[in-house]
Amino acid sequence: MKAQVTIDRDVAIGDTHDRLFGAFVEHLGRCVYGGIFEPGHPEADEKGFRRDVLALVKELAPTIMRYPGGNFVSGYNWEDGVGPVEQRPRRLDLAWMSTEPNTFGTNEFIDWCRAADVEPMLAVNLGTRGADAARNLVEYCNHPGGTAWSDLRRSHGWEKPHDIKFWCLGNEVDGPWQMEHKTAREYGRVATESAKMMKWVDPSLELAACGSSARNMPTFGAWEREVLEHCFEHVEFISLHTYLNNYADDMPSFLASADLMDSFIEEVVSIADAVAAERRSSKRLMLSFDEWNVWYRTRGKKEGRTVPGWPVAPKILEEIYTMGDALAFGGACISLLNHADRVKAACLAQLVNAIAPIMTETGGPAWRQTIFYPFAQMSNLGRGRVLRSRVESPTYATSYYDPRGTQEHRFSMPEVPYLKCAAVHDRDEGFLTLFLLNRSLDDVLDLRVDTRGMELLGLDRAEQLCDSDLAAVNSREQPERIKPSILEQVRIADGQISAVLQPGSWNIIRMKMLAA
Ligand code: AHR
């Protein structure tokens, strides 16, 4: 099978923002406790941060980290997580039906972000709390001193303000599973009032309003429109969430489903711009895709995904990712890159243990899941100007399954090309990087890339992630069962790149170029 890609140095989608490569730490299962934080672990530093996990986080290279939830934030009293640890209350967490010991809170998270070299992104509780708790948290974190909340932070040992810029106004407030779920009108009002007060405390904040928690929510579209009618002037971002699934055990459709993220992004852009047009406003909201991943084996109903008895840090949502999952995940990476003009923040949900690229054993080692690799390659190699790829590829028919994944919930989709591709030009450093997914499970793909207006100096690196067993996984016993290998057979001549992509493969090809 043959495919042709054409790119032109001067035909660009947009520049990637560093925040496009973010991830997410929620108080959920063993993401915090036994994940990033495990005092007493042989690898723990003096603050209880696992050094082995920090080393993997640096290799993964997320740029911004969302915290503390997720569903958890809709019942969280941030005051419980600050001050002397021995005085912090233990609470029932109704999001994940567990006991929250509060031995890790906002200040520990900020210290961890500094150690991991990532920007913090905080979410405020617009479920059980509201604007008052939100503005107090901003004052606690960002005000230099001389007020009750800022002096409280200083008395807790953090003299300098945390200077947190990016804030999420609640989480998935459209979802009935959320503590104090709201209608669009109710949420639009509380988001507006919270935004106003938070920015009065610190005008430098950038705020994201909650969009729909999924594209298949019945309220999708109407929700965004009504929420933005209220808070358009007060926010910079609207959020999107997507979890790809293979409930139907239909690998070709699963690999195609990442393309629904493209549709979702384009639809939300249209709605945000329609709200702007009604106001004759030149303001353009940006998109924060602040939860995305593959998630289905450990999803399902609340009863099935929680553990009775209110445990601390239960082993829940510990999705083990296969080779096939990594391919679908790679498709999602390409969707994000190809919308770099409007998606200016995104968070892989999540970071450690709970639906995560990094796994740990409590008291034991840490290792990389299959999805670790496409993310690390995207974050380390995908910064720059995303060029518009013209893809000529054979296509295939597929279906879309909503999260229930049954035949009754099957919808037809337009045919999708076997090849999915993004091209990023780093003009400062002089690299062109191609991210390439061959969705054919049977055929190799003979690829030709025509690069216009670019002087290719040679190959820098070429790697593939593929395996004849799409069910293969990494584990404690076999941590490197799936890992990238060298992509052979890449040729560069006369501005043309040619390569042979294996069936069911994720690939990167990086060329050296003249800088600027
Ligand atoms: O990431 C897991 C959960 O998925 C988050 O807590 C919630 O926001 C979403 O439904």
UniProtKB/TrEMBL annotation:
Pfam families documented for this protein: Alpha-L-AF_C, ASD1_dom
Entry EC number(s): 3.2.1.55
Residue ranges of every copy of the Alpha-L-arabinofuranosidase C-terminal domain listed in the record: 290-505
Keywords per UniProt: Carbohydrate metabolism, Glycosidase, Hydrolase
Catalytic activity from the UniProt record: Hydrolysis of terminal non-reducing alpha-L-arabinofuranoside residues in alpha-L-arabinosides
Subunit description: Homohexamer; trimer of dimers.
Family label: Belongs to the glycosyl hydrolase 51 family.
Name of protein: non-reducing end alpha-L-arabinofuranosidase
Organism for this UniProt entry: Roseomonas gilardii
